[in-house]
Design brief:
Strand content of chain A: under 5%
Shape of chain A: globular
Order of helices and strands of chain A: HHHHEEHHHHHHHHHHH
InterPro entries (chains A, B): Isoprenoid_synthase_dom_sf, Polyprenyl_synt, Polyprenyl_synt_CS, Prenyl_diphosphate_synthase
Organism (chains A, B): Ancylobacter defluvii
CATH topology of chain A: Farnesyl Diphosphate Synthase
CATH architecture of chain A: Orthogonal Bundle
Helix content of chain A: 55-70%
Largest interface: A-B, 60 and 60 residues
Number of strands of chain A: 2
Largest sheet of chain A: 2 strands, antiparallel
Family (chains A, B): Belongs to the FPP/GGPP synthase family.
Distance between the termini of chain A: 42 Å
Protein name (chains A, B): Probable farnesyl diphosphate synthase
Oligomer: homodimer
GO molecular function (chains A, B): metal ion binding; prenyltransferase activity
Number of helices of chain A: 15
Radius of gyration of chain A: 19 Å
Chain lengths: 309, 309
Protein backbone atom coordinates (compact mmCIF):
# COMPACT_ATOMS: atom_id res chain seq x y z
CA UNK A 1 0.00 0.00 0.00
CA UNK A 2 1.12 3.53 -0.68
CA UNK A 3 -0.12 6.93 0.42
CA UNK A 4 -0.27 8.19 -3.14
CA UNK A 5 -3.87 8.98 -4.10
CA UNK A 6 -4.92 7.89 -7.59
CA UNK A 7 -5.24 10.76 -10.05
CA UNK A 8 -8.62 12.46 -9.62
CA UNK A 9 -11.18 11.15 -12.10
CA UNK A 10 -12.78 13.67 -14.45
CA UNK A 11 -16.57 13.95 -14.48
CA UNK A 12 -16.67 12.96 -18.14
CA UNK A 13 -14.58 9.87 -17.42
CA UNK A 14 -16.70 8.91 -14.42
CA UNK A 15 -19.95 9.33 -16.37
CA UNK A 16 -18.66 7.08 -19.15
CA UNK A 17 -17.32 4.46 -16.73
CA UNK A 18 -20.67 4.40 -14.91
CA UNK A 19 -22.77 4.39 -18.10
CA UNK A 20 -20.74 1.48 -19.51
CA UNK A 21 -21.10 -0.55 -16.32
CA UNK A 22 -24.86 0.08 -16.13
CA UNK A 23 -25.35 -0.79 -19.81
CA UNK A 24 -23.47 -4.07 -19.35
CA UNK A 25 -25.56 -4.90 -16.29
CA UNK A 26 -28.84 -4.00 -18.05
CA UNK A 27 -27.82 -6.21 -20.95
CA UNK A 28 -27.13 -9.08 -18.57
CA UNK A 29 -30.32 -8.86 -16.50
CA UNK A 30 -32.70 -8.24 -19.40
CA UNK A 31 -31.48 -11.52 -20.92
CA UNK A 32 -33.43 -13.34 -18.19
CA UNK A 33 -36.63 -12.87 -20.21
CA UNK A 34 -35.02 -14.32 -23.37
CA UNK A 35 -36.11 -17.96 -22.88
CA UNK A 36 -39.75 -16.83 -22.80
CA UNK A 37 -40.01 -14.19 -25.51
CA UNK A 38 -37.21 -13.04 -27.76
CA UNK A 39 -39.33 -10.15 -29.02
CA UNK A 40 -40.06 -8.90 -25.49
CA UNK A 41 -36.37 -9.10 -24.64
CA UNK A 42 -35.39 -7.16 -27.76
CA UNK A 43 -37.96 -4.47 -26.98
CA UNK A 44 -36.69 -4.22 -23.37
CA UNK A 45 -33.16 -3.81 -24.73
CA UNK A 46 -34.36 -1.15 -27.15
CA UNK A 47 -35.98 0.73 -24.26
CA UNK A 48 -33.01 0.38 -21.92
CA UNK A 49 -29.91 0.24 -24.11
CA UNK A 50 -30.38 2.98 -26.72
CA UNK A 51 -27.86 5.25 -25.01
CA UNK A 52 -28.73 7.83 -22.40
CA UNK A 53 -26.54 9.66 -19.92
CA UNK A 54 -27.40 7.26 -17.04
CA UNK A 55 -27.58 10.24 -14.67
CA UNK A 56 -29.69 8.41 -12.10
CA UNK A 57 -27.34 5.42 -11.80
CA UNK A 58 -24.43 7.87 -11.67
CA UNK A 59 -26.06 9.64 -8.72
CA UNK A 60 -26.63 6.29 -6.97
CA UNK A 61 -23.03 5.19 -7.51
CA UNK A 62 -21.43 8.50 -6.56
CA UNK A 63 -23.69 8.99 -3.53
CA UNK A 64 -22.74 5.52 -2.32
CA UNK A 65 -19.08 6.27 -3.06
CA UNK A 66 -19.22 9.12 -0.52
CA UNK A 67 -19.38 6.35 2.09
CA UNK A 68 -16.72 4.16 0.50
CA UNK A 69 -19.14 1.79 -1.29
CA UNK A 70 -17.42 0.54 -4.47
CA UNK A 71 -19.24 0.82 -7.80
CA UNK A 72 -19.64 -2.95 -8.09
CA UNK A 73 -21.72 -3.00 -4.88
CA UNK A 74 -23.90 -0.05 -5.95
CA UNK A 75 -24.44 -1.35 -9.48
CA UNK A 76 -27.53 -3.58 -8.93
CA UNK A 77 -29.50 -0.80 -7.20
CA UNK A 78 -28.30 1.72 -9.80
CA UNK A 79 -29.40 -0.61 -12.60
CA UNK A 80 -32.79 -1.16 -10.94
CA UNK A 81 -33.38 2.59 -10.88
CA UNK A 82 -32.41 2.90 -14.55
CA UNK A 83 -34.94 0.14 -15.38
CA UNK A 84 -37.65 2.29 -13.81
CA UNK A 85 -36.50 5.37 -15.70
CA UNK A 86 -36.45 3.49 -19.02
CA UNK A 87 -39.87 1.91 -18.42
CA UNK A 88 -41.32 5.36 -17.73
CA UNK A 89 -39.91 6.68 -21.03
CA UNK A 90 -41.31 3.73 -23.02
CA UNK A 91 -44.79 4.33 -21.56
CA UNK A 92 -44.52 8.15 -21.77
CA UNK A 93 -43.72 7.97 -25.49
CA UNK A 94 -46.84 5.90 -26.33
CA UNK A 95 -49.42 7.43 -28.71
CA UNK A 96 -51.95 7.62 -25.86
CA UNK A 97 -49.45 9.59 -23.75
CA UNK A 98 -46.92 12.01 -25.35
CA UNK A 99 -46.99 10.33 -28.79
CA UNK A 100 -43.28 10.68 -29.50
CA UNK A 101 -41.55 9.03 -32.46
CA UNK A 102 -38.01 9.85 -31.44
CA UNK A 103 -36.06 9.29 -28.23
CA UNK A 104 -32.29 9.76 -27.93
CA UNK A 105 -32.24 10.06 -31.72
CA UNK A 106 -33.75 6.57 -32.16
CA UNK A 107 -37.31 5.41 -32.91
CA UNK A 108 -39.29 5.06 -29.69
CA UNK A 109 -40.14 1.50 -28.58
CA UNK A 110 -43.66 1.47 -30.05
CA UNK A 111 -42.29 2.82 -33.35
CA UNK A 112 -39.53 0.21 -33.50
CA UNK A 113 -41.93 -2.58 -32.41
CA UNK A 114 -45.62 -1.93 -31.71
CA UNK A 115 -47.74 -0.46 -28.94
CA UNK A 116 -48.56 -3.72 -27.18
CA UNK A 117 -44.91 -4.71 -27.09
CA UNK A 118 -43.92 -1.27 -25.77
CA UNK A 119 -46.51 -1.49 -22.98
CA UNK A 120 -45.34 -4.98 -21.97
CA UNK A 121 -41.63 -4.12 -22.27
CA UNK A 122 -42.25 -1.20 -19.90
CA UNK A 123 -44.20 -3.42 -17.49
CA UNK A 124 -41.38 -5.99 -17.56
CA UNK A 125 -38.68 -3.38 -16.90
CA UNK A 126 -40.61 -1.96 -13.93
CA UNK A 127 -41.03 -5.44 -12.49
CA UNK A 128 -37.36 -6.29 -13.15
CA UNK A 129 -36.32 -3.28 -11.08
CA UNK A 130 -37.89 -4.80 -7.96
CA UNK A 131 -36.49 -8.22 -8.79
CA UNK A 132 -32.98 -6.73 -8.86
CA UNK A 133 -33.43 -4.91 -5.54
CA UNK A 134 -34.63 -8.12 -3.89
CA UNK A 135 -31.46 -10.05 -4.73
CA UNK A 136 -28.57 -10.33 -2.26
CA UNK A 137 -26.26 -8.60 -4.77
CA UNK A 138 -28.21 -5.36 -4.19
CA UNK A 139 -27.14 -5.32 -0.54
CA UNK A 140 -26.12 -8.11 1.84
CA UNK A 141 -28.62 -6.93 4.49
CA UNK A 142 -32.27 -7.90 3.74
CA UNK A 143 -33.46 -4.97 5.87
CA UNK A 144 -31.57 -2.55 3.59
CA UNK A 145 -32.91 -4.29 0.48
CA UNK A 146 -36.47 -3.97 1.72
CA UNK A 147 -35.84 -0.29 2.50
CA UNK A 148 -34.63 0.15 -1.10
CA UNK A 149 -37.81 -1.53 -2.40
CA UNK A 150 -40.02 0.66 -0.22
CA UNK A 151 -38.24 3.85 -1.27
CA UNK A 152 -38.29 2.99 -4.98
CA UNK A 153 -41.98 2.09 -4.89
CA UNK A 154 -42.86 5.38 -3.20
CA UNK A 155 -40.71 7.39 -5.63
CA UNK A 156 -42.05 5.66 -8.74
CA UNK A 157 -45.76 5.13 -8.03
CA UNK A 158 -48.94 7.14 -7.81
CA UNK A 159 -47.55 9.23 -4.94
CA UNK A 160 -44.38 9.92 -6.98
CA UNK A 161 -43.40 9.75 -10.64
CA UNK A 162 -46.63 8.24 -11.99
CA UNK A 163 -48.66 10.79 -10.04
CA UNK A 164 -46.50 13.52 -11.60
CA UNK A 165 -47.14 12.11 -15.07
CA UNK A 166 -50.89 12.36 -14.43
CA UNK A 167 -50.46 15.99 -13.34
CA UNK A 168 -48.44 16.61 -16.49
CA UNK A 169 -51.22 15.26 -18.72
CA UNK A 170 -53.75 17.31 -16.74
CA UNK A 171 -51.59 20.42 -17.28
CA UNK A 172 -52.03 19.90 -21.02
CA UNK A 173 -55.80 20.09 -20.51
CA UNK A 174 -56.24 16.43 -21.44
CA UNK A 175 -58.97 15.67 -18.93
CA UNK A 176 -62.19 17.65 -19.22
CA UNK A 177 -63.37 16.52 -15.78
CA UNK A 178 -60.11 17.16 -13.91
CA UNK A 179 -58.78 20.53 -12.84
CA UNK A 180 -55.48 21.66 -14.33
CA UNK A 181 -52.61 22.15 -11.88
CA UNK A 182 -52.02 25.79 -10.94
CA UNK A 183 -49.97 27.39 -13.78
CA UNK A 184 -47.83 29.26 -11.26
CA UNK A 185 -44.37 28.60 -9.90
CA UNK A 186 -45.56 26.42 -7.01
CA UNK A 187 -47.80 24.37 -9.33
CA UNK A 188 -44.99 23.78 -11.83
CA UNK A 189 -42.53 23.00 -9.03
CA UNK A 190 -44.89 20.44 -7.48
CA UNK A 191 -45.54 18.73 -10.80
CA UNK A 192 -41.84 18.48 -11.61
CA UNK A 193 -40.85 17.43 -8.10
CA UNK A 194 -43.03 14.37 -8.70
CA UNK A 195 -42.58 13.69 -12.42
CA UNK A 196 -38.80 13.98 -12.67
CA UNK A 197 -37.63 14.97 -9.19
CA UNK A 198 -38.82 11.88 -7.32
CA UNK A 199 -36.48 9.45 -9.12
CA UNK A 200 -33.51 11.86 -8.98
CA UNK A 201 -33.98 12.31 -5.24
CA UNK A 202 -34.41 8.56 -4.90
CA UNK A 203 -31.03 8.03 -6.62
CA UNK A 204 -29.23 9.86 -3.82
CA UNK A 205 -31.42 8.27 -1.15
CA UNK A 206 -30.38 4.88 -2.53
CA UNK A 207 -26.72 5.82 -2.20
CA UNK A 208 -27.35 6.91 1.38
CA UNK A 209 -29.03 3.57 2.19
CA UNK A 210 -26.24 1.55 0.58
CA UNK A 211 -23.67 3.65 2.47
CA UNK A 212 -25.40 3.45 5.87
CA UNK A 213 -25.46 7.26 5.95
CA UNK A 214 -26.24 8.97 9.24
CA UNK A 215 -29.51 10.94 9.33
CA UNK A 216 -27.50 14.18 8.95
CA UNK A 217 -25.56 12.82 5.98
CA UNK A 218 -28.78 11.59 4.36
CA UNK A 219 -30.33 15.04 4.89
CA UNK A 220 -27.39 16.73 3.13
CA UNK A 221 -27.76 14.34 0.19
CA UNK A 222 -31.48 15.06 0.13
CA UNK A 223 -30.83 18.82 -0.10
CA UNK A 224 -28.35 18.18 -2.90
CA UNK A 225 -30.71 15.93 -4.83
CA UNK A 226 -33.62 18.31 -4.42
CA UNK A 227 -31.57 21.15 -5.92
CA UNK A 228 -30.24 18.91 -8.70
CA UNK A 229 -33.76 17.73 -9.56
CA UNK A 230 -35.01 21.30 -9.87
CA UNK A 231 -31.94 22.28 -11.92
CA UNK A 232 -32.49 19.28 -14.19
CA UNK A 233 -36.00 20.43 -15.00
CA UNK A 234 -35.12 24.09 -15.56
CA UNK A 235 -32.31 23.01 -17.90
CA UNK A 236 -34.86 20.79 -19.70
CA UNK A 237 -37.24 23.72 -20.07
CA UNK A 238 -34.42 25.88 -21.47
CA UNK A 239 -33.56 23.15 -23.98
CA UNK A 240 -37.21 22.95 -25.01
CA UNK A 241 -37.11 26.69 -25.79
CA UNK A 242 -33.57 27.04 -27.14
CA UNK A 243 -32.44 23.59 -28.29
CA UNK A 244 -32.83 21.97 -31.68
CA UNK A 245 -34.11 18.42 -32.09
CA UNK A 246 -30.86 17.14 -33.62
CA UNK A 247 -28.79 18.11 -30.58
CA UNK A 248 -31.41 17.32 -27.96
CA UNK A 249 -32.28 13.96 -29.55
CA UNK A 250 -36.03 14.38 -29.17
CA UNK A 251 -38.77 16.76 -30.27
CA UNK A 252 -38.44 20.30 -28.87
CA UNK A 253 -40.90 23.18 -28.49
CA UNK A 254 -43.54 20.74 -27.26
CA UNK A 255 -44.27 22.41 -23.92
CA UNK A 256 -45.42 25.74 -25.31
CA UNK A 257 -47.30 23.94 -28.09
CA UNK A 258 -49.11 21.93 -25.39
CA UNK A 259 -49.92 25.12 -23.46
CA UNK A 260 -48.03 23.96 -20.38
CA UNK A 261 -46.55 26.43 -17.92
CA UNK A 262 -42.79 25.95 -17.49
CA UNK A 263 -40.13 27.38 -15.22
CA UNK A 264 -38.72 29.33 -18.18
CA UNK A 265 -42.09 30.83 -19.05
CA UNK A 266 -42.69 31.85 -15.46
CA UNK A 267 -39.16 33.09 -14.69
CA UNK A 268 -38.03 34.22 -18.15
CA UNK A 269 -34.84 32.89 -19.75
CA UNK A 270 -32.62 35.20 -17.71
CA UNK A 271 -34.49 34.47 -14.49
CA UNK A 272 -34.22 30.73 -15.17
CA UNK A 273 -30.44 31.06 -15.61
CA UNK A 274 -30.14 32.94 -12.31
CA UNK A 275 -32.22 30.25 -10.55
CA UNK A 276 -30.03 27.53 -12.09
CA UNK A 277 -26.90 29.19 -10.72
CA UNK A 278 -28.52 29.47 -7.27
CA UNK A 279 -29.44 25.77 -7.34
CA UNK A 280 -25.93 24.71 -8.38
CA UNK A 281 -24.49 26.69 -5.46
CA UNK A 282 -27.04 25.15 -3.10
CA UNK A 283 -26.10 21.66 -4.34
CA UNK A 284 -22.40 22.40 -3.84
CA UNK A 285 -22.93 23.77 -0.34
CA UNK A 286 -25.03 20.76 0.71
CA UNK A 287 -22.07 18.44 0.11
CA UNK A 288 -19.34 20.69 1.54
CA UNK A 289 -19.04 18.54 4.64
CA UNK A 290 -18.04 15.50 2.54
CA UNK A 291 -14.84 17.28 1.39
CA UNK A 292 -13.10 16.24 -1.81
CA UNK A 293 -15.02 12.92 -1.94
CA UNK A 294 -17.99 14.96 -3.18
CA UNK A 295 -16.13 16.68 -6.04
CA UNK A 296 -17.70 14.56 -8.80
CA UNK A 297 -21.23 15.04 -7.43
CA UNK A 298 -20.63 18.78 -7.21
CA UNK A 299 -19.36 18.89 -10.79
CA UNK A 300 -22.36 16.80 -11.83
CA UNK A 301 -24.72 19.46 -10.46
CA UNK A 302 -23.17 22.04 -12.80
CA UNK A 303 -23.13 19.58 -15.69
CA UNK A 304 -26.85 18.88 -15.19
CA UNK A 305 -27.63 22.60 -15.05
CA UNK A 306 -25.64 23.44 -18.18
CA UNK A 307 -26.22 20.35 -20.34
CA UNK A 308 -27.08 20.81 -24.00
CA UNK A 309 -29.03 17.56 -24.42
CA UNK B 1 -61.73 -20.50 26.24
CA UNK B 2 -63.62 -23.61 25.25
CA UNK B 3 -62.76 -26.76 23.37
CA UNK B 4 -65.70 -26.38 21.02
CA UNK B 5 -64.52 -25.86 17.44
CA UNK B 6 -66.29 -23.07 15.54
CA UNK B 7 -68.73 -24.30 12.89
CA UNK B 8 -66.86 -25.09 9.67
CA UNK B 9 -66.96 -22.16 7.26
CA UNK B 10 -68.50 -22.72 3.83
CA UNK B 11 -66.43 -21.96 0.74
CA UNK B 12 -68.94 -19.34 -0.37
CA UNK B 13 -68.77 -17.67 3.04
CA UNK B 14 -64.98 -17.73 3.08
CA UNK B 15 -64.75 -16.30 -0.44
CA UNK B 16 -67.05 -13.42 0.50
CA UNK B 17 -65.24 -12.75 3.78
CA UNK B 18 -61.92 -12.70 1.95
CA UNK B 19 -63.19 -10.60 -0.97
CA UNK B 20 -64.66 -8.03 1.40
CA UNK B 21 -61.45 -7.76 3.40
CA UNK B 22 -59.32 -7.39 0.27
CA UNK B 23 -61.66 -4.77 -1.20
CA UNK B 24 -61.51 -2.74 2.00
CA UNK B 25 -57.72 -2.97 2.04
CA UNK B 26 -57.45 -2.02 -1.65
CA UNK B 27 -59.69 0.95 -1.00
CA UNK B 28 -57.49 2.05 1.89
CA UNK B 29 -54.11 1.70 0.17
CA UNK B 30 -55.16 3.19 -3.19
CA UNK B 31 -56.18 6.34 -1.31
CA UNK B 32 -52.47 7.09 -0.81
CA UNK B 33 -52.31 8.49 -4.35
CA UNK B 34 -55.30 10.77 -3.72
CA UNK B 35 -53.37 13.89 -2.62
CA UNK B 36 -51.50 13.86 -5.95
CA UNK B 37 -54.16 13.00 -8.52
CA UNK B 38 -57.80 12.40 -7.82
CA UNK B 39 -58.33 11.12 -11.38
CA UNK B 40 -55.51 8.58 -11.09
CA UNK B 41 -56.91 7.39 -7.77
CA UNK B 42 -60.40 6.98 -9.22
CA UNK B 43 -59.04 5.02 -12.18
CA UNK B 44 -57.02 2.77 -9.84
CA UNK B 45 -60.21 2.15 -7.85
CA UNK B 46 -62.09 1.38 -11.04
CA UNK B 47 -59.42 -1.14 -12.02
CA UNK B 48 -59.22 -2.74 -8.58
CA UNK B 49 -62.65 -2.38 -7.00
CA UNK B 50 -65.13 -3.31 -9.76
CA UNK B 51 -65.86 -6.69 -8.20
CA UNK B 52 -63.97 -9.85 -8.99
CA UNK B 53 -63.80 -13.15 -7.18
CA UNK B 54 -60.44 -12.31 -5.51
CA UNK B 55 -59.30 -15.88 -6.10
CA UNK B 56 -55.60 -15.03 -5.80
CA UNK B 57 -55.94 -13.29 -2.43
CA UNK B 58 -58.15 -16.15 -1.28
CA UNK B 59 -55.39 -18.63 -2.18
CA UNK B 60 -52.83 -16.50 -0.30
CA UNK B 61 -55.02 -16.26 2.79
CA UNK B 62 -56.08 -19.93 2.85
CA UNK B 63 -52.55 -21.20 2.11
CA UNK B 64 -51.24 -19.11 4.99
CA UNK B 65 -54.11 -20.35 7.17
CA UNK B 66 -52.81 -23.93 6.75
CA UNK B 67 -49.98 -22.81 9.02
CA UNK B 68 -52.14 -20.90 11.47
CA UNK B 69 -51.53 -17.43 10.01
CA UNK B 70 -54.65 -15.31 10.62
CA UNK B 71 -56.25 -13.46 7.70
CA UNK B 72 -55.25 -10.06 9.09
CA UNK B 73 -51.57 -11.03 8.80
CA UNK B 74 -51.91 -12.41 5.27
CA UNK B 75 -54.01 -9.49 4.01
CA UNK B 76 -51.24 -7.08 2.91
CA UNK B 77 -49.48 -9.71 0.76
CA UNK B 78 -52.86 -10.89 -0.58
CA UNK B 79 -53.78 -7.32 -1.47
CA UNK B 80 -50.41 -6.75 -3.16
CA UNK B 81 -51.01 -9.77 -5.39
CA UNK B 82 -54.49 -8.54 -6.30
CA UNK B 83 -52.97 -5.16 -7.27
CA UNK B 84 -50.76 -7.00 -9.76
CA UNK B 85 -53.69 -8.99 -11.13
CA UNK B 86 -55.81 -5.83 -11.54
CA UNK B 87 -52.96 -3.89 -13.20
CA UNK B 88 -52.52 -6.72 -15.69
CA UNK B 89 -56.22 -6.63 -16.58
CA UNK B 90 -56.18 -2.84 -17.07
CA UNK B 91 -53.22 -3.13 -19.47
CA UNK B 92 -54.54 -6.29 -21.16
CA UNK B 93 -57.83 -4.58 -21.98
CA UNK B 94 -56.16 -1.63 -23.76
CA UNK B 95 -56.92 -1.09 -27.47
CA UNK B 96 -53.31 -1.95 -28.34
CA UNK B 97 -53.64 -5.27 -26.49
CA UNK B 98 -56.95 -7.19 -26.34
CA UNK B 99 -59.13 -4.12 -27.02
CA UNK B 100 -61.91 -5.04 -24.58
CA UNK B 101 -64.76 -2.70 -23.69
CA UNK B 102 -66.21 -4.82 -20.91
CA UNK B 103 -64.72 -6.40 -17.80
CA UNK B 104 -66.75 -7.92 -14.97
CA UNK B 105 -69.78 -6.38 -16.67
CA UNK B 106 -68.36 -2.85 -16.32
CA UNK B 107 -66.60 -0.59 -18.85
CA UNK B 108 -62.86 -1.30 -18.89
CA UNK B 109 -60.58 1.37 -17.40
CA UNK B 110 -59.70 3.02 -20.71
CA UNK B 111 -63.40 3.13 -21.65
CA UNK B 112 -64.41 4.65 -18.32
CA UNK B 113 -61.46 7.10 -18.39
CA UNK B 114 -58.97 7.19 -21.28
CA UNK B 115 -55.99 5.19 -22.49
CA UNK B 116 -53.29 7.30 -20.85
CA UNK B 117 -55.06 7.12 -17.50
CA UNK B 118 -55.51 3.35 -17.85
CA UNK B 119 -51.80 2.88 -18.59
CA UNK B 120 -50.78 5.01 -15.60
CA UNK B 121 -53.36 3.47 -13.26
CA UNK B 122 -51.91 0.05 -14.16
CA UNK B 123 -48.36 1.26 -13.61
CA UNK B 124 -49.35 2.71 -10.24
CA UNK B 125 -51.08 -0.51 -9.12
CA UNK B 126 -48.04 -2.61 -10.06
CA UNK B 127 -45.76 -0.27 -8.12
CA UNK B 128 -48.15 -0.20 -5.16
CA UNK B 129 -47.93 -4.00 -4.94
CA UNK B 130 -44.22 -3.80 -4.14
CA UNK B 131 -44.77 -0.90 -1.76
CA UNK B 132 -47.22 -3.04 0.23
CA UNK B 133 -44.87 -6.04 0.36
CA UNK B 134 -42.05 -3.81 1.64
CA UNK B 135 -44.01 -2.64 4.68
CA UNK B 136 -43.69 -4.35 8.08
CA UNK B 137 -47.41 -5.21 8.01
CA UNK B 138 -46.69 -7.68 5.17
CA UNK B 139 -44.48 -9.74 7.49
CA UNK B 140 -42.49 -8.82 10.60
CA UNK B 141 -39.31 -10.41 9.18
CA UNK B 142 -37.55 -8.29 6.51
CA UNK B 143 -35.99 -11.44 5.05
CA UNK B 144 -39.47 -12.88 4.42
CA UNK B 145 -40.66 -9.57 2.95
CA UNK B 146 -37.74 -9.51 0.53
CA UNK B 147 -38.46 -13.13 -0.42
CA UNK B 148 -42.07 -12.09 -1.16
CA UNK B 149 -40.81 -9.22 -3.36
CA UNK B 150 -38.43 -11.51 -5.23
CA UNK B 151 -41.10 -14.16 -5.80
CA UNK B 152 -43.72 -11.65 -6.96
CA UNK B 153 -41.30 -9.97 -9.36
CA UNK B 154 -40.35 -13.30 -10.92
CA UNK B 155 -44.00 -14.38 -11.20
CA UNK B 156 -45.19 -11.10 -12.70
CA UNK B 157 -42.37 -10.02 -15.02
CA UNK B 158 -40.90 -10.97 -18.39
CA UNK B 159 -40.04 -14.46 -17.10
CA UNK B 160 -43.59 -14.89 -15.82
CA UNK B 161 -46.97 -13.25 -16.48
CA UNK B 162 -45.76 -10.50 -18.82
CA UNK B 163 -43.75 -13.04 -20.82
CA UNK B 164 -46.91 -15.15 -21.09
CA UNK B 165 -48.87 -12.13 -22.33
CA UNK B 166 -46.28 -11.66 -25.09
CA UNK B 167 -46.64 -15.35 -26.06
CA UNK B 168 -50.41 -14.89 -26.09
CA UNK B 169 -50.18 -11.96 -28.51
CA UNK B 170 -47.73 -13.96 -30.64
CA UNK B 171 -50.20 -16.88 -30.66
CA UNK B 172 -52.72 -14.54 -32.30
CA UNK B 173 -50.20 -13.95 -35.10
CA UNK B 174 -49.74 -10.32 -34.07
CA UNK B 175 -46.01 -10.15 -34.82
CA UNK B 176 -44.91 -10.83 -38.38
CA UNK B 177 -41.27 -11.20 -37.31
CA UNK B 178 -41.84 -13.48 -34.32
CA UNK B 179 -42.62 -17.18 -34.43
CA UNK B 180 -45.98 -18.31 -33.05
CA UNK B 181 -45.89 -20.65 -30.04
CA UNK B 182 -46.44 -24.28 -30.97
CA UNK B 183 -50.24 -24.81 -31.32
CA UNK B 184 -50.02 -28.15 -29.52
CA UNK B 185 -50.77 -29.15 -25.96
CA UNK B 186 -47.27 -28.39 -24.63
CA UNK B 187 -47.24 -24.98 -26.36
CA UNK B 188 -50.65 -24.03 -24.93
CA UNK B 189 -49.69 -25.37 -21.50
CA UNK B 190 -46.45 -23.34 -21.45
CA UNK B 191 -48.22 -20.15 -22.50
CA UNK B 192 -50.91 -20.54 -19.86
CA UNK B 193 -48.49 -21.57 -17.12
CA UNK B 194 -46.89 -18.16 -17.61
CA UNK B 195 -49.85 -15.92 -18.46
CA UNK B 196 -52.29 -17.04 -15.78
CA UNK B 197 -50.53 -19.84 -13.90
CA UNK B 198 -47.58 -17.82 -12.58
CA UNK B 199 -49.69 -15.55 -10.35
CA UNK B 200 -51.91 -18.42 -9.14
CA UNK B 201 -48.85 -20.46 -8.17
CA UNK B 202 -47.36 -17.36 -6.58
CA UNK B 203 -50.49 -16.99 -4.42
CA UNK B 204 -49.84 -20.33 -2.74
CA UNK B 205 -46.08 -19.70 -2.59
CA UNK B 206 -46.87 -16.48 -0.71
CA UNK B 207 -48.96 -18.39 1.81
CA UNK B 208 -46.09 -20.85 2.26
CA UNK B 209 -43.62 -18.01 2.90
CA UNK B 210 -45.95 -16.27 5.38
CA UNK B 211 -46.51 -19.59 7.14
CA UNK B 212 -42.82 -20.63 7.29
CA UNK B 213 -43.73 -23.83 5.44
CA UNK B 214 -41.18 -26.62 5.38
CA UNK B 215 -39.75 -27.46 1.94
CA UNK B 216 -42.05 -30.51 1.80
CA UNK B 217 -45.12 -28.47 2.72
CA UNK B 218 -44.20 -25.81 0.15
CA UNK B 219 -43.81 -28.55 -2.48
CA UNK B 220 -47.31 -29.90 -1.74
CA UNK B 221 -48.75 -26.40 -2.08
CA UNK B 222 -46.84 -25.99 -5.34
CA UNK B 223 -48.38 -29.19 -6.73
CA UNK B 224 -51.81 -27.98 -5.64
CA UNK B 225 -51.35 -24.53 -7.20
CA UNK B 226 -50.01 -25.97 -10.43
CA UNK B 227 -53.10 -28.17 -10.81
CA UNK B 228 -55.42 -25.31 -9.86
CA UNK B 229 -53.74 -23.00 -12.38
CA UNK B 230 -54.23 -25.51 -15.19
CA UNK B 231 -57.82 -26.15 -14.11
CA UNK B 232 -58.49 -22.40 -14.02
CA UNK B 233 -57.39 -22.05 -17.64
CA UNK B 234 -59.28 -25.07 -18.95
CA UNK B 235 -62.43 -23.78 -17.22
CA UNK B 236 -61.77 -20.39 -18.86
CA UNK B 237 -61.47 -22.06 -22.27
CA UNK B 238 -64.74 -23.92 -21.70
CA UNK B 239 -66.46 -20.68 -20.77
CA UNK B 240 -65.09 -19.05 -23.92
CA UNK B 241 -66.73 -21.82 -25.95
CA UNK B 242 -69.90 -22.40 -23.94
CA UNK B 243 -70.57 -19.27 -21.89
CA UNK B 244 -72.54 -16.20 -22.83
CA UNK B 245 -71.18 -12.69 -22.29
CA UNK B 246 -73.89 -11.73 -19.78
CA UNK B 247 -72.99 -14.56 -17.39
CA UNK B 248 -69.23 -14.47 -17.95
CA UNK B 249 -69.09 -10.66 -17.65
CA UNK B 250 -66.73 -10.20 -20.60
CA UNK B 251 -66.65 -10.92 -24.31
CA UNK B 252 -66.67 -14.66 -25.18
CA UNK B 253 -65.73 -16.61 -28.31
CA UNK B 254 -62.61 -14.45 -28.66
CA UNK B 255 -60.06 -17.25 -28.68
CA UNK B 256 -61.34 -19.06 -31.73
CA UNK B 257 -61.94 -15.73 -33.47
CA UNK B 258 -58.28 -14.88 -32.81
CA UNK B 259 -57.18 -18.25 -34.17
CA UNK B 260 -55.57 -19.28 -30.88
CA UNK B 261 -55.16 -22.90 -29.91
CA UNK B 262 -56.86 -23.71 -26.57
CA UNK B 263 -57.03 -26.69 -24.26
CA UNK B 264 -60.63 -27.27 -25.33
CA UNK B 265 -59.77 -27.20 -29.01
CA UNK B 266 -56.92 -29.67 -28.49
CA UNK B 267 -58.69 -31.98 -26.01
CA UNK B 268 -62.30 -31.55 -27.13
CA UNK B 269 -65.03 -30.49 -24.68
CA UNK B 270 -65.33 -33.99 -23.22
CA UNK B 271 -61.56 -34.45 -22.98
CA UNK B 272 -61.28 -31.06 -21.27
CA UNK B 273 -63.86 -32.11 -18.67
CA UNK B 274 -61.98 -35.35 -17.98
CA UNK B 275 -58.72 -33.41 -17.59
CA UNK B 276 -60.46 -30.97 -15.23
CA UNK B 277 -61.61 -33.84 -13.03
CA UNK B 278 -58.08 -35.28 -13.00
CA UNK B 279 -56.65 -31.91 -11.96
CA UNK B 280 -59.18 -31.47 -9.16
CA UNK B 281 -58.26 -34.90 -7.80
CA UNK B 282 -54.56 -34.05 -8.06
CA UNK B 283 -55.15 -30.80 -6.18
CA UNK B 284 -57.08 -32.62 -3.45
CA UNK B 285 -54.42 -35.30 -3.07
CA UNK B 286 -51.61 -32.74 -2.83
CA UNK B 287 -53.17 -31.28 0.32
CA UNK B 288 -54.21 -34.55 1.95
CA UNK B 289 -51.40 -34.28 4.50
CA UNK B 290 -52.82 -31.04 5.87
CA UNK B 291 -56.01 -32.81 7.01
CA UNK B 292 -59.19 -30.85 7.55
CA UNK B 293 -57.34 -27.53 7.60
CA UNK B 294 -57.13 -27.87 3.80
CA UNK B 295 -60.86 -28.40 3.24
CA UNK B 296 -61.55 -24.91 1.93
CA UNK B 297 -58.60 -25.04 -0.49
CA UNK B 298 -59.76 -28.43 -1.72
CA UNK B 299 -63.27 -27.13 -2.25
CA UNK B 300 -61.81 -24.11 -4.02
CA UNK B 301 -60.10 -26.38 -6.57
CA UNK B 302 -63.48 -27.82 -7.56
CA UNK B 303 -65.11 -24.37 -7.54
CA UNK B 304 -62.39 -23.05 -9.89
CA UNK B 305 -62.80 -26.04 -12.22
CA UNK B 306 -66.59 -25.76 -12.36
CA UNK B 307 -67.12 -22.00 -12.22
CA UNK B 308 -69.60 -20.41 -14.63
CA UNK B 309 -67.94 -16.99 -14.74
Amino acid sequence: MTDTAPPAETLAGALIRCADAVAAELDRVIARAQPVSDRLTRAMRHAALAGGKRLRPFLVIESAALFGVPMSRALPAATALECVHCYSLAHDDLPAMDDDDLRRGQPTVHRAYDEATAILAGDALLTLAFELLAEPAADPDPAVRIALVAALARAAGGEGMVGGQMLDLAAEGRFADAGRPAPDLSGVARLQELKTGALLRHACATGALLGRASPAEAAHLHTYSHAVGRAFQIADDLLDVEGDAATVGKAVGKDSAAGKATFVELLGVEGARIELERLVEQAHAALAGFGTRATLLQEAARFIAERRN
